[in-house]
Amino acid sequence: MSGHLTLDGVAYPFQSGQTVLEVARENGIKIPALCYHRKTGPAGRCRVCIVEVEGQAGLPTSCNLEAKDGMVVYTNTEAVLEVRRSVVNLLLANGEHNCLSCEQNGRCELQDAAYDLGIEIPAFTIIGPEVEIDDSSEMIVNDRRKCIQCGICVAACNNVVVNEVLGMGQRGFDSRIVCDLDVPMAESTCVQCGECVQLCPVGAFIEKKAIGQGRSWELETVDTTCPYCGVGCQLTLHVDTNANRIVRVTGREVVPNDGMLCVKGRFGYEFPSSPNRLTQPLIRKNGELEPVSWEEALDFTAERIKKIVEEHGPDVFSAFGSGRTTNESNYAISKFTRAVIKTNNVDHCART
Q: Whose CA is closest to 66, among 88, 44, 34, 89?
């Protein structure tokens, strides 16, 4: 079933089951939503995504408001903007949202909402309980001072990657995100996949290694494929071109991984700029490894393989494919081993 709804005077088609927020974003209409993400689904917690619906009392949240045929919706009336300003002012007042020194500056959804609503200074200040930063884990810092309790990290951890580590602990003013039964992240069952870092709309979950290494607008982004296994996860490298090094990695929300990455894919990115990387072939001569040309290295290797096979037979030769190379490269090594060397001793690191 499908239909049409009207957003700010323009009719748009929708499919059955879509929310007003989904229809709006599908058609380029900006509605801020701090507790919503496509992967974690409708939430209705932050109330920043409210809209005005003709003939309906109150201001419903668009993230869980199902689109209906003939519905007339207004996304930026003065009544809507006034409530949004109040909500964002409360979020800014409750916590330490010091944008100038925050790692999320320039890619923070709360900051974007405040900018769009013309909020330069919070209208009031709330003095809450002192909250400690949990930096116990190897890769992730949980800065609870910046948490807006949107619940996206909890939904992502429990329902998307299904690690079931994060939850909402305590009550009332003392509510906060906790790991397992409120233990430090390093002592919890967290596998450091970083999905909470990926989806956090503010600076509550940040990557430890990227702190102080560059602002978002200073870094160049490069889309690529993760090199660690054969799944082919798609990711984006955030590169400091001046230092020629990767500062941060984020997952691309496309197939096959839809933004999700393992701990290696998200945090194991130093090796491209490692000074220990080999930059040219080496051959051992007189007991020492010496750099040589590719031509010499290939000729040397081919001659050694040929001599060993001639002396001891083809079955002394074995070849191993790798999940970190392309299917074409793995096919080539298999073809070479079977057709040229005449042995079936071929295996692959991904075989179980």
A: 44
CA angle 265, 149, 163 (to 5 degrees): 40
Does residue 120 share a domain with residue 64? Answer: yes
- CA 132-136-141 angle, to 5 degrees, is 70
DSSP assigned state of 336: I
Task: Please tell me whether residues 103 and 172 are part of one structural domain.
Answer: no
Look at residues 273, 295, 318 and tell me which one is the last residue of a structural domain: 273
Same domain, 68 and 120: yes
Number of structural domains in the chain: 4
CB-based burial of residue 184 (10 Å sphere; 0-12 exposed, 13-18 middle, 19+ buried)? middle
Which of 186, 212, 238 terminates a domain? The answer is: 212
Are 116 and 12 found together in one domain? yes
- Position of tokens 């200073």? 218
pLDDT, residue 1, reads: 67
* In a shared domain, residues 6 and 74: yes
- Asked whether 158 and 188 are in contact (CB, 8 A), the reply is no
Q: Which of 161, 154, 333, 155 is closest to 259 using CA atoms?
A: 161
**Tell me: the pLDDT tens digits for 279-330?**
999 999 999 999 999 999 999 999 999 999 999 999 999 999 987 778 899 9
Q: Please give the residue range of the domain that contains residue 232.
A: 216-273
Contact 261, 207 (CB under 8 A): no
In terms of Cα–Cα distance, which of 73, 142, 156, 150 is closest to 113? Answer: 150
Smallest CA-to-CA distance from 240 within 223, 222, 225 is with: 222
Contact 104, 137 (CB under 8 A): no
As beta bridge partners, residue 235 has 224, 251
Judgement on whether residues 32 and 110 belong to the same structural domain of the protein: yes
Of residues 263 and 351, more confidently modeled: 263
Give tens-digit pLDDT for 194-231: 999 999 999 999 999 999 999 999 999 999 999 888 78
d(CA 102, CA 63): 28
Do 5 and 89 reside in the same domain of the chain?
yes
On the 0-12 / 13-18 / 19+ scale of CB atoms within 10 A, 61 is: buried
